[in-house]
Queue: 2 jobs
Job 1
Amino acid sequence: MRALDRDDALSPLRDLLALPPELIYLDGNSLGPMPRQAAAAVEQALRHEWAQGLIRSWNDSGWISRARAVGDDLAPLIGASPGEVLVADSTSINLHKVLGAAMSLSRRRDPTRAVLLTQEDNFPTDRYIAQGLCQQWGWTLREAPAGTKDWAAELDRPDVGILMLTHVNYRSGEMHDMARVNRHAQARGVLTVWDLAHSAGAVELALKAPGAAADFAVGCGYKYLNGGPGAPAFVWVHPEHVNRTEQPLRGWLGHEAPFAFEPDYRPAPGIDRYTCGTPPILSLTALQAGVRALRQADALGGMAALRRKSLSLTSAFIECSSAAAQAHGLTLLTPLEPQRRGSQVSWACAAGGPDGFSVMQGLIRRGVIGDFRSGPRAGEPDILRFGFAPLYNTHEEAWRAAQALAEELARASTGPLGAVRRPLVT
Ligand SMILES: *Cc1c(COP(=O)(O)O)cnc(C)c1O
């Protein structure tokens, strides 16, 4: 593992993050660590731009264009071009905007298509937003089974107007083949909406791949982009559609001429029409530091190099943790095939095996921070999630975390009162 870390050209980038020493942080897929530069940048925004500049800073410090500037910094990370990405609001709100826009575009193209297709194990907020919009629009929300890989058959049904998927599943870490899905959807006239919450900053993305382009995408600022708690999210619309789309949250700053204060709405050209209200400048400033930290990888191979390292880290962790995990009845939810794996490893707990919650609490007490997710439905197992961020995690951390997991599993298979719970050994 040390040799892998020695050969890792990306390893100096870890210093861009303010990680507490001795902590093994494997939860950057939930909240990324603070980029060192974020503290200085936010302090500058507070003490200079706000305190001294006051209202003048909207122009003098570029506050008014900061949301687009951060979008431009972010664009190459997701395979988009400058001018196409807006940073604003939360992922949930951006999902509402793009789904509303996609529904109206789809209805104009073909009013007989009124099914929004998704997957039953999609993240709750995606399902809730879709449920609300379907109810409002009189559409049907159709949920393909968890683990669906062959979307061609689902997309063949002539009533499907939109396919909304999360690229990397938040529980299993399984990744969809975006290009393939987009090709199938495009051939059948179905619009695609992608949630990149667990992809942006962790895996390579090509939203405009020729013949396999996505139509709409949203993603999260506080996970692998290290934008800070509650960081604004991002939204992208294919440039060929964007001026034909109308999003439902018409706010004054998405107007073509916001400072004309006209009585009626006219959408701004391009992605700016996805703006609703005033952007959170302090949060944007922190997110900019996070995105710029990732862009430091450009000179070292960029997202392709980060993706290679991510796979190397998750492979190492799977290899080092498998024997102990399987001895305690855990099963690997994350696909072994690299092209189907995002940047996390999820072990599913077995009924009657060690208690996952207490295993994760034990890991956190000893400085290995992953997270625990309980099974949302009957029959779905609790999981232990370990997120690996290629910007700062190391192979040695993967190895040490696997050792700690083995020890905690052994401890947790002995009940709290000393009663030995029998591990499920197969
Ligand atoms: C984290 C996450 C979100 C977050 O939504 P917020 O609006 O920022 O709370 C949305 N979708 C997915 C798939 C996520 O993993």
Job 2
Amino acid sequence: MGIPTSILVLFALLFLAELELCSTRSNLSCIESEREALVKFKESLTDTSNRLSSWVGEDCCTWNEVGCSNKTGHVLKLDQRIGIPEFLGSLRSLRYLNLSSTGFEGMVPHHLGNLSSLMYLDLGSRTLDYSNIFTVDSLWWASALSSLKYLNLDKVMLREATDWLDAINMLPSLSELSLVDCELGGIPPLSRVNITSLTSLDLQGNNIDSIPLWLSNVSRLVNLRVNYNLFQGSVPDTIGKLTSLTFLDLSMN
Ligand SMILES: *[C@@H]1O[C@H](CO)[C@@H](O)[C@H](O)[C@H]1NC(C)=O
Ligand SMILES: *[C@@H]1O[C@H](CO)[C@@H](O)[C@H](O)[C@H]1NC(C)=O
Ligand SMILES: *[C@@H]1O[C@H](CO)[C@@H](O)[C@H](O)[C@H]1NC(C)=O
Ligand SMILES: *[C@@H]1O[C@H](CO)[C@@H](O)[C@H](O)[C@H]1NC(C)=O
Ligand SMILES: *[C@@H]1O[C@H](CO)[C@@H](O)[C@H](O)[C@H]1NC(C)=O
Ligand SMILES: *[C@@H]1O[C@H](CO)[C@@H](O)[C@H](O)[C@H]1NC(C)=O
């Protein structure tokens, strides 16, 4: 399968990006090897919305969502509206996946749940604006990532994903979890705490107004950030029971 090569080229293209684009480019045609990579990439996608239907013909620089340098003809940018390709889920041995600044956006495909060797998954956004780059409708696929140690979903829209905590509670190896600005709206109850390896939890900016009792069972917790939420009154007893805690941020509540 040519897929891994095309994906590598694609990522190389995406990392090259962020430079100026040609709105007034000349009749220079695109680089053939890059055109081939884009075609392979397109073939690997299920382009249900037909957004890539313009991806035909020789000059890939005229295709929608593709931007080339008007000096060199190199593809400099793929438009941000390209979703995470589902076939990433077939790279079953993948241990590390970081799509945090790669230019993908949209709904996160449930196929990522096939990556059972994954130890690090970073879909978090580090931009300062408030827009959500990724959306998750249900996080249940993540419950299959049994090797996961690190999960960052900062600014991923989880409002619809009401199963987020049940899914995450299926990850006994998880030690770092970051869910900043995910529109969680609260922390659901749990009947049995499985995430006992968790040492770092960041829930900033989620309109949370109370800390559930079950959190005191996450006994190895060292870092807890719950700033920028809606807590009022005294510090809950639950936090006092976290005997390993060395860092606590309750500010801006
Ligand atoms: C493209 O070429 C034009 C003139 O040929 C130049 O003015 C412009 O800066 C170049 N870059 C972009 C992004 O248009
Ligand atoms: C680009 O097109 C213009 C006319 O549209 C032509 O004069 C010029 O020779 C072309 N340049 C190349 C490199 O083909
Ligand atoms: C993912 O990439 C971003 C941007 O390059 C970086 O800041 C972040 O630390 C990476 N995440 C992991 C888990 O390595
Ligand atoms: C991966 O996951 C999706 C959705 O969860 C599933 O439909 C697909 O058959 C799985 N297998 C492979 C090899 O991608
Ligand atoms: C805890 O994890 C086990 C598997 O490790 C799972 O069977 C069980 O449903 C989980 N409990 C909850 C409350 O999610
Ligand atoms: C928390 O730990 C206590 C003592 O081990 C146990 O009895 C209780 O069921 C646990 N609660 C949850 C929600 O896991």
